[in-house]
Amino acid sequence: MTVKVEVGAGGIPHNQILIYGLVGSLVLIYLTYLNVIFDTTVFSFLGGLGAVAALVWGTDTIKHLCSYGLGTGVPSAGMIALGSGVVAMLLATTTGILAPIVALIVSAIVGAIAGFLANKVVRMDIPVMIMSLTELAIVGALTLLGFAVMVGGTFDFLGLAVGTTTFLGFTVESYAASVIGGSIVAVLFMLGAIAIQHSFNACLGPGEQQDRTLMLAAECGFLSMIVISVMSFAFIGFIPAVISLVVSVAGWYYTYAKYIELSKRDAYAWLDAKPILEPKGGA
């Protein structure tokens, strides 16, 4: 038997955030295909924005799932999201322009299987487990795909797996100088996992408010984008990497300032609360 413990009231319905996050992420990642059309990499930053959209959705999904008393399950949910997502993302990159759609479908299947095992084999018996893990797997796949495009300029497997280096004055292909061959995917995994885990963990409690939690999710996403934009200098052109860095810093500054503003709002609200007195003689 599972008892649902609400962590916040009001706000935007979860299904609405799901639609915004899913559609926004897919559209932004697909817009990075402009790199191929115009033979450039200046649109790579759009992949990072797509990942941020997915992370905001994923944070609300974690809140939805953990409202059933899974406070310590936040890190596990985040790791399942990115673990399922990396499998789907790598497979999807081999399908060309269909990559974002294939990533969505494959990750949904993997997530649904993980949710079924959690409920029916591990016997967690949480009503939203299957749906939530399905959502989180999709979030993980789209986050990794968006970050991969941002650092590598493409969501094509060969573009991510094969780079170039200079040897004796000649430019030669090198797997080690690529996003996948250089193990950059592992870094993207951790940046995505930390971003999706931290927000709800940091805001969890009786004073949790949806707008503050989701703003922190966006801030964490942009913070990850800053790191990724710095790494992108090694894989895409200087100007595209600078554009990514400027967008990342601007997005982070705005969301951080808004998060601090919302935190002050909620802290001030608690000042009117009376302290909880301990009963005489101890608890």
UniProtKB/TrEMBL annotation:
It is found in: Cell membrane. The keyword Hydrolase does not apply. The chain crosses the membrane at residues 17-36, 42-58, 70-91, 97-118, 130-155, 175-194, 238-256. It holds the Pfam family MtrC. Its main location: membrane. Its EC number is 7.2.1.4. The gene is mtrC. This is Tetrahydromethanopterin S-methyltransferase subunit C. InterPro entries: THM_MeTrfase_su_C (IPR005865). It catalyses: 5-methyl-5,6,7,8-tetrahydromethanopterin + coenzyme M + 2 Na(+)(in) = 5,6,7,8-tetrahydromethanopterin + methyl-coenzyme M + 2 Na(+)(out). It is a multi-pass membrane protein. The complex is composed of 8 subunits; MtrA, MtrB, MtrC, MtrD, MtrE, MtrF, MtrG and MtrH. Pathway: One-carbon metabolism; methanogenesis from CO(2); methyl-coenzyme M from 5,10-methylene-5,6,7,8-tetrahydromethanopterin: step 2/2. The lineage of its organism: Archaea, Methanobacteriati, Methanobacteriota, Stenosarchaea group, Methanomicrobia. Belongs to the MtrC family. It comes from Methanoculleus frigidifontis. GO terms for biological process: methylation. GO terms for molecular function: methyltransferase activity. Part of a complex that catalyzes the formation of methyl-coenzyme M and tetrahydromethanopterin from coenzyme M and methyl-tetrahydromethanopterin. This is an energy-conserving, sodium-ion translocating step. Keywords: Cell membrane, Membrane, Methanogenesis, Methyltransferase, One-carbon metabolism, Transferase, Translocase, Transmembrane, Transmembrane helix.
